[in-house]
Specification:
This protein is α+β, with helices and mostly antiparallel strands and about 625 residues long. The chain has five domains: about 70 residues, Phenylalanyl-tRNA Synthetase, Chain B, domain 1 (2-Layer Sandwich); about 190 residues, Phenylalanyl-trna Synthetase, Chain B, domain 3 (Phenylalanyl-tRNA Synthetase, Chain B, domain 3, 3-Layer(bba) Sandwich); about 60 residues, Phenylalanyl-tRNA Synthetase, Chain B, domain 1 (2-Layer Sandwich); about 150 residues, BirA Bifunctional Protein, domain 2 (2-Layer Sandwich); about 80 residues, 2-Layer Sandwich (Alpha-Beta Plaits), CATH 3.30.70. Helices cover about 30% and strands about 25% of the residues. It contains 20 helices and 30 strands. The strands form eight sheets. It has a five-stranded mixed beta sheet with strand order 4-7-10-11-12. Strands 5, 6, 13, 14 and 15 form a five-stranded antiparallel beta sheet that branches. β28 and β29 form a beta hairpin. The longest helix is centred in the last third of the chain and has 17 residues.
Length: about 625
């Protein structure tokens, strides 16, 4: 959220500190700061307002309230006063869907002037990255950025009949102010007149009742829409606006009253003649509950690890305009209606800590604390298994928890093949066979061993499973290691021995699986030991991406005299092969009659193109020539 220091100053009689000091204060107590940008006659503070405070702090008023408490600067009250209701026609409003539209406030303004905005208003918006349109549209945007309540103005003479807040008819269309034609669904909430759609509620206005330079009378909408409904419509039509962002995060109904006074003041000040207003029509049955929270002084001290005097805590509540009573070591806090994030005692304690300043809490060494850390069995066995399996030559996989079918389905899936949550780690074996096995020659191996530890999801539970798969690439691997079932049975014994426990497994289709939760519930480790230090690669290893282009493999065998080593031959091959040789593996070696035979598998690949046969043939010819010049015999 971009915040103007000049704009903030309008909330205070007392001069504010410079923008960098304001940013530092907010950083210590409230929000992360992205930066401070100096503008001509102003400074813009870029504040990272997270969703938990978007309902009250995506505006200058919310930030001003924070500063008021943090700096002990009183805010100017009643900055906007409603104008006297006049003879303008009363707006007729009907809400058909009271769940999606909690409150709809509207009034008629007669005799407005629509023209280019004065410099102060245009500058205020452009410093926030907004485009100046005209006095009426700019006034509604200014109020939104000022107090956080989105508004919309319709040309009253283009509205036929009354205003109805209803679900769209399936297939109904509207053209937005940006000129985009939308095809609506019955899940969309719209603002309509007797002829058709005027706006997509909370998201975007339509061109039908657009305010232009010819507009003389307007209807101003100040509403409160249900967050999920706005979010769904915004995502469905791929339209995200400053208005939808605020409604998605939910705002207090109380803001409609504040915004109505603000917009009337601006409309009157920006018009050449006196503007008359109709009585405000307020429709909707939703009422916002008043929350009172009780929290003991003992709990505040225990959670924060501090002993803040009660008098200082009461002062903090007063500075941040929270009504509180204190009796028998218990605070009763009346939560302001705009603070939708404060609902339980821990929320109140968090506020006390934030206001007091987390940076003021003294640091204590963990070694100085008198406690014994509890051992989480599942964490212990999960990390122990990773260490053992990595040591045994297995590689960890991380696969999608989403699959095409399952007991738990997704409301908004990423795709048809990812519409549910997995009930087993079956994708592991598919990954081992379909992806790793076909690239075995690339990695110079004749055996693939992979494992995954992850959650599986059933209709009534979640379980942490471990699945281990292995595949032999060729007959040599089978002869050396045994078949896959034998390998997994042997691995099961190794796991039990090294973990020091017994547990049952299921072996099927080259895969062994078992419940990690079951192991953790039946066994209690005594300490973590070194389970948090698995090493699957050298400490000085560096990541390098694999080319997207296909690779080619060639084999070469040669006789060498005694004393010639594998590294001697690899060096000769590497130095003569050229840029396309990326790997060189020894796959066979034997000695006979004072000579040794070495056989190497060579992998060629380019990061820029698909290699042609001639590229590899040239490289192999150069390698053969270089080896023969060493006096070695190519087989």
């Amino acid at each position: 959220m971009l915040i103007s220091r000049t704009w903030l100053q309008s909330y205070f009689n007392q001069a504010l500190p410079d923008a960098h000091s304001i940013a530092h204060t907010l950083l210590l107590h409230s929000f992360e700061i992205e930066g401070v940008n100096e503008k001509e006659n102003d400074s813009i503070i870029d504040i990272d307002v997270l969703p938990n405070r978007a309902h009250d702090c995506l505006c200058h008023r919310g930030i001003a309230q924070e500063l008021s408490g943090l700096l002990s600067y009183p805010m100017i009250q009643d900055r906007f006063t409603k104008y006297t209701e006049g003879t303008a026609p009363k707006v007729k409003v009907t809400i058909e869907n009271t769940h999606k539209c909690r409150c709809y406030t509207a009034f008629y303004a007669q005799g407005v002037t629509v023209r280019n905005s004065p410099q102060w208003l245009a500058d205020a918006l452009t410093t926030l990255g907004q485009k100046s349109i005209n006095t009426i549209v700019d006034a509604t945007n200014y109020v939104m950025f000022d107090c956080g309540q989105p508004l919309h103005a319709f040309d009253a003479d283009k509205v036929v009949g009354g205003i109805t807040v209803r679900d769209a008819h399936e297939g109904e269309t509207m053209t937005t102010l940006g000129g985009e034609t939308l095809t609506l669904t019955s899940d969309d909430l719209v603002i309509a007149d007797d002829e058709g759609v005027l706006a997509l509620a909370g998201v975007k206005g339509g061109i039908k009742a657009e305010v232009t330079s010819d507009t003389k009378n307007i209807i101003v909408e100040i509403a409160n829409f249900e967050p999920i409904s706005v979010r769904h419509s915004s995502r469905r039509h791929k339209i995200q606006t400053d208005s939808s962002k605020r409604f998605e995060n939910e705002i207090s109904i109380d803001l409609t009253t504040i915004a109505s006074g603000a917009i009337q003041k601006h409309i009157s000040n920006l018009s050449d003649t006196e503007v008359t207003y109709s009585p405000c029509v307020v429709e909707g049955t939703y009422t916002q509950a008043q929350h009172r929270i009780h929290v003991t002084k003992e709990k505040v001290d225990r959670v924060l690890g501090l002993d803040i005097p009660s008098k200082e805590i009461l002062d903090l509540f007063g500075r941040f305009a929270m009504k509180v009573s204190y009796d028998s070591e218990v605070f009763e806090v009346t939560v302001p209606q705009e603070r939708l994030d404060i609902r339980i005692s821990e929320d109140v304690i968090e506020e006390i800590g934030r206001w007091y300043g987390y940076h003021r809490i003294p640091s204590i060494s963990v070694s100085a604390l008198n406690f014994t850390a509890a051992i989480d069995a599942r964490t212990y066995y999960e990390n122990s298994l990773k260490n053992i399996l990595i040591a045994e030559g297995y590689t960890e996989l991380l696969t999608y928890a989403f699959t095409h079918t399952g007991e738990v389905t997704l409301y908004n899936p990423l795709g048809k093949d990812k519409s549910a949550l997995r009930t087993e780690l079956v994708s592991m074996l598919e990954t081992a066979r379909d992806l790793n096995l076909k690239n075995a020659s690339f990695f110079g191996t004749n055996h693939i061993g992979v494992f995954e530890i992850g959650r599986v999801y059933h209709a009534d539970s979640e379980v942490t499973m471990c699945s281990i798969s292995c595949c032999n690439v060729d007959k040599k691997a089978r002869k050396e290691l045994g078949d896959e079932t034998q390998q997994l049975e042997a691995l099961h014994k190794v796991l039990q021995q090294k973990l020091g426990i017994s547990f049952e497994v299921n072996i099927s289709e080259n895969t062994m699986s078992f419940s990690l939760d079951e192991i953790a519930s039946n066994n209690v480790p005594q300490s973590y030991g070194d389970v948090f230090d698995p090493h699957s690669y050298a400490s000085d290893a560096r990541y390098k991406g694999i080319s997207v282009y296909p690779y080619s493999t060639r084999d070469i065998s040669l006789w060498v005299s005694e004393g010639v080593t594998e590294n001697d031959i690899k060096t000769a091959i590497t130095n003569s092969a050229g840029e396309y040789l990326i790997k060189c593996y020894l796959f066979d070696e034997f000695s006979k009659e004072e000579r040794t035979s070495f056989a190497f598998s060579l992998v060629f690949q380019s990061s820029e193109k698909t290699l042609e046969e001639g590229d590899v043939d040239t490289a192999m010819k150069n390698i053969s020539t270089a080896l023969e010049q060493q006096g070695w015999e190519i087989r």
